[in-house]
Input
Amino acid sequence: MKFEINAGQRSLEANFIVNSDELLIKSGEKELRFEAILVQPGVYSILVNNRSFVVGVCPSEANRVNVNGTPINLELLDAVHLHLRELGWDDLQDVKTGLISAQIPGLVTKIFHKVGDAIREGDPLFLIEAMKMENEIKSPVEGIVKRIGVIEGQTVEKGTNIIEIV
Amino acid sequence: MFKKILIANRGEIALRVMRTCREMGIEVVAVFSEADRSAPHVLFADEAYLIGPAPSTESYLNYEKILEVAKASGADAIHPGYGFLSENTDFAREVSEAGIIFIGPPASAIKIMGDKTMARQTMLKTQVPVVPGTEEPIEDIAKALNVAKEIGFPVLIKAAGGGGGKGMRIVNSASEFEDAVGKAERESQSAFGDGRVYVEKYLEEPHHIEFQILADTHGNTIHLNERECSIQRRYQKVIEESPSPFIDDDLRSRMGQAAVETAESCKYVGAGTVEFLVDKHRNFYFLEMNTRLQVEHPVTEMVTGIDLVAEQIRIASGQPLSMKQTDIRSTGHAIECRIYAEDASNDFAPSTGEIVMLQIPDGAGTRFDGAIRQGMKITPYYDPMLGKLICWATDRDAALNRSERALREFYIGGIETTIQFCRSVVRHPVFRHGTYDTHFYSNFREALHEDLAASTDEVLLVAGGSLYHHQNQIKHSSNSAVSSKKARSNWVSAQLGRKI
Output
C-alpha cells in the first residue's frame, strides 16, 4: 500500500507491504524490515533491520509519535487521501472557521463582545488565562457574533466553543 | 532540632524539601488545595491539610489558613519553598510572631531586597558594583547627556513605568542621544501611560550569573560558587549550569566576595542568591538578591555535595554553619534542564491535560526533581514547571553528553513539554562551546526550532510505520468501538459557569 509521510517541511513516499507478522517498508533505495512489539500500553519496541527504536504513540495525540525521545508530528496519507488531494479537496481543511474554540484549557477572564457585534479579522475576542499567563485570542474571520458559549469567569476545557462568528 | 515542619508549597519543591526533612528524621506536614488532593506532595507527607479551593489566592497564598494549620498540627517551623509566600514579609513576620520558626531570612532582609529602589540604595553604600545610570527619571536632557557621557556609550534608555522592551533604546553616541530619549518617551507614554525614562549603562553580550550564599545567625556568611543562568526565554530561565563556562577563578572569587558583602549588607540569614549581570568585558554588576531557595539550587548541590535544604533547616534551628568558606570545593560539572508543560513550537504556550505516558530517566549522575505521575492531570491553576533534570559528570563535555542522553530517555506523553527544546539547546554548537550569553535564545531561535523538526529518513519511516502499525492494532482490537463513540458537544451551558 502506498503512503506519503509528512513531517513539517519533510515528505517521503513509502510502500508498506504486510507479510504475515512483519511489515516491509520500501522507500526509494531503502528497504526496511519493520518488526514491532507492544512493551507497555502505547509504547512499542521497534526493530528495523536490527536497529532498535522505542516509539511512543499517545492515545490523546492522534498524529504524534515519539521516536527515541523525539516527538514527531506526522501526517500519514494513504492512497485515498492522496487522490483527494489531487482533486484539490484538501484545501477545505484550511478554510478559516468562524467557530472559535479554546485552544488551551483555562479561565476565560474577559469577553470583548456581545451577540450582534460586528467583528473584523484580527479583533481581540476574549482573554483566556492559563498557568498564570493571559492569552488574547483574536478573530480569524470578519463577521457578526452569532453566539457566545461562555461567561466571564468560566473555566473551560480545551476545545470548548467560545464564540461563533457568521 | 525541629520535630515537625510544615511545607507551605506544592509541586516539586514541596517534595524536594520533604525528602530532606524525612532524611533528618523530621515529620512533614503538607497543605493542599482542592485541585491537589492526589498530588505527590500530599502522598509523601506524614500529615496533610486541605486549605482551600484550587486558585492559589484562596489556598497556597492564604497565609492565615496556613498559619492555622501550622498551629493545629503542632509544626515548629514552616518552609515556604520558592514562589507563593516565600518572599512575603507579612507572612514571615506573622509566622515568627506566632512563635513558629520561618525557614528563611528575617522579614527585614526580604523587605530590603524585594524593593528594587531600596536594594539599589543599599548596594550603593557597599563596594558591590551596580549597573551605572541615572538614579531618577530624566528631567533635564543636558544633565542626562552628561551622565550618559560619564557612563560611556553605548547606553540604554529604559522606561520607568514598564518593561518588556517597550520604550527601550540603545544609544551608541552622544549625537543620537536627544532624539532617542524623545522617541523612548513617546513610546513609553503610549505603552504605559507614563513617559518617564532613565539612562543605564548598556551591557554588551550580558551573562546572568548568580552566587549561592549561606548565612547563619552567628554572623558567618559564605558563598557556594556560581550558577550560569543565561539560557532564558521570556526572561525565564530554562537551563542552568555550574561552573559557568564564562568566568575564571579570579572573577569567581571577586564575585563571590561581592555576593557575601551583599548578603551582609541586609543582615541576611539562611540560603539566598545574589544575581549579577556580567558583560563581555567581564565587568559584573549587582542585579538583585533572591531571598529564598532558588529553583536551580540542585546545580549547586551536585557540584558542592551540600544539601542546601538541610543547611537551611540547621541555620533556622540556630546552629552555626558546619563549613567555612575554605571548605567549599566545586567538583565536576552540573547542568539543569527545566521541564515545563509548554509548547516550545507555539511560543511556549502552556499545555494542560493528562500525563498519559511517563518515562523518567535514571542512571549514573542523573537526578530528577519532579512531582509527576502517570495519569496525573496538569491543571491551568499553577506554575507549568513539571520538574528539573539535573545531570552531573566529571567535566562539562561529559555533563552535556549525559544531559542529552537523559533527555532522550525522558518521555512524557499527553501534554507538550520542553524536553525536546532542552535537547536542542544542549546539542547546539554555541551552547556546547560555552560561548553563549542571555541573547542565546533570540540569536538562535530559528535554528533551535528547526532542530526540533529535523530527523533522518530512517526515523521518519519508523515514525510512519509505527503510526500505521498502531492504527491497525487499534482497528483489530476494538473494531468499531472508537468510531461509534458518541460525538460530544463542544458547547457548554453558560449557566454552569462559575462566577468569580
